[in-house]
Amino acid sequence: MDLKLLFISTLLGIICCSRAQQEGNECIKANALSCGECIQVGAKCGWCTDTDFLKQGEPTSARCDELESLKKRGCSATKIENPHGSQRTLKNKPVTNRKKGADKLRPEDITQIQPQKLSLNLRSGEPQNIKLKFKRAEDYPIDLYYLMDLSYSMKDDLENVKNLGTSLMKEMSKITSDFRIGFGSFVEKTVMPYISTTPAKLLNPCTGDQNCTSPFSYKNVLKLTSNGQQFNSLVGQQQISGNLDSPEGGFDAIMQVAVCGDHIGWRNVTRLLVFSTDAGFHFAGDGKLGGIVLPNDGKCHLENNMYTMSHYYDYPSIAHLVQKLSENNIQTIFAVTEEFQPVYKELKNLIPKSAVGTLSANSSNVINLIVDAYNSLSSEVILENSKLPEGVTITYQSHCKNGIVNEGENGRRCSNISIGDEVSFNINITAQGCPKQGKSETIKIKPLGFTEEVEIVLNFICECECHKHGIKNSDLCHNGNGTFECGACRCNKGRVGRQCECRKDEVSTEDLDKNCRKDNGTDICSNNGECVCGTCECKKRENPEERYSGKFCECDNFNCDRSNNKLCGGHGRCECRVCICDANYTGSACDCSLDTSTCLASNKQICNGRGNCECGTCRCTDPKFQGPTCEICPTCPGVCTEHKECVQCRAFGTGEKKDTCERDCSYFNLIKVKDRDKLPQPVQAFPLMHCKERDANDCWFYYTYAVNNNTEKEVHVVETLECPAGPDIIPIVAGVVAGIVLIGLALLLIWKLLMIIHDRREFAKFEKEKMNAKWDTTENPIYKSPINKFSNPNYGRKAVAL
């Protein structure tokens, strides 16, 4: 069972080691033929530019290896190409420390994120870390556009919104001194089959005597303005319209508000869109009901402030809206009635930086709803980045208020931020390889709902520094068939070989293969390589420390003898399957030390003069002596006396050393046995001494002393003392015992005599009573016969005739 466990653990160790080597050997696996290819494999890889670095049989790709491996293989650190990434800050305007009531600043002069522009040089596999700082500026300008559903069900809401301008301006002045408000309305596409198509209904879609305006898709009523009275005036002129189905065409209106920035009047400030309705919404695909199949193009189509392409383009999809709202930094507040809260809460989850508020039946609470939603949206910052180039990854770590640190997707955000709070983000950007063109790329990172952004220019390190000094058509590359750079030839198209000496079409021919067979054998490159241009290029091993070499790849550095599971005993190197030992070591596995200092005894003699020093270990020639320096003699006279006191104190807690036992007597292993038969016998493989000693109470104890094969001292001791009885006690005990015995015999005789007398008296009494008996011995006087006689009175009479 133990052997099985040992085998399994060893096998698992080999597998784990093998996996670790494979995973960490990406440089070897890449088979890079140039320095540029090598450094794109990963940050661990380097390229040796030393022209004499490669051994015979090693391919050019062997120059690409892990840094430590290259150094071990003899490449000087100054000859290793290992470029590193870097970064520069191009624009670093500090965040604005502005207080309300201070001098008014233009929106473009307010900074909430720092730095604003960086340039990164990316080495493949090596992350570049940048730190962004965000601070909510006080008194930051706000643009708010109120987009309202003017279907008939919102009639009473319109009455309350007519006075919204001045009231909202007054409330928002508590938050910012620079506030603008605009207004737009929507109903539905006019071509939908559920809108009446009769001329009269198009002019007045409402029933009864209600006066309603014609249905429309979206109308921009008021461009963003700081004049609250103008808002009230224009909104007061609006009329309710109508349609027949419950969902409205609000998505068309949201799209136009997002993309028609010039018509709406958006500034580069906080942009809020309040979407007010008491119904659901149509989305992409619903236009087919009216014969509209073209998808929404996401462009502005306002003429005279009216959306003119509602009959031509379908409703936008939710994903399309998310994209456009994000691109234009618009934060959406859905002010909807209680009935449609669940629908719009689900929509909120799909639109970043959006909020949902419950609108009362007549919109009387709209101001409080807007203020609460704004505070909720502005208290959270979420970073997003533009599309990343192929092979580039980005990770975020946020450092928020109260020491809270988030990673992963939560690393993009910080919550509960108040005005004036500062938070930071650590961002790692990593490239894997180089883009196809190798050109610079630009990405942008910005907080959602804010117009500010960080621009990052990505430059990719695709070539080594030594590439700049390459010699084209160099004579070192077989008559100019390649560029000599970074210590090796980079062959021209159609040429191969270490010196580009062959054309691709002549790489493998019978004549060239002959040069790769050792001693005219059948194996090409000893089955450890490939024949390229008549020269062996040896295979690479999974373990970068292991290599084939030689003209025919007949050598390797991993098939030498081992000792203690170490190649060449850890005291030499393996060259062509033979151990080359370090100084003071010899043997096929370099496991024999020539140092004799470990064999010196205390008398400065080699092995105490009683043995030979072999490979740093004493081999004792005198069978009586043993130990690492042949100084221990378990069977020599005086051994028992020497160890008596320590055995006595360790085994029985008595003797002269009982107070210093732990200090003086811990040099041997003590094993207790029950009796003398359990003591070890001298037939063991190592010398053993039997001892019998007496303590101060004249008690004997028995033990054995030996030094085992591991040079450990062992003492086996019988656990009970053997003590003789005292001389004065014996006569007393004997007398007592004799007295007890005599008394017992006397009592026994007396008892026997009394029993005899008693028996005789009883017998005499019996005989006397027998003689005095008065009844006849032939008949029992109390005897009574069991027979009774009876007579029949009619016996002998004649019978009467009937």
From TrEMBL:
Its main location: membrane. It is found in: Cell membrane; Cell projection, Invadopodium membrane; Cell projection, Lamellipodium; Cell projection, Ruffle membrane. Residues 1-20 form the signal peptide. Residues 26-76 form the PSI domain. GO terms for biological process: cell adhesion mediated by integrin; cell migration; cell-cell adhesion; integrin-mediated signaling pathway; muscle organ development. Residues 34-464 form the Integrin beta subunit VWA domain. It is a single-pass type I membrane protein. It comes from the Eukaryota. Keywords: Calcium, Cell adhesion, Cell junction, Cell membrane, Cell projection, Disulfide bond, EGF-like domain, Glycoprotein, Integrin, Magnesium, Membrane, Metal-binding, Myogenesis, Phosphoprotein, Receptor, Repeat, Signal, Transmembrane, Transmembrane helix. Residues 752-798 form the Integrin beta subunit cytoplasmic domain. GO terms for cellular component: cell surface; focal adhesion; integrin complex; lamellipodium; melanosome; ruffle membrane; synapse. Belongs to the integrin beta chain family. This is Integrin beta. It comes from Culter alburnus (Topmouth culter).
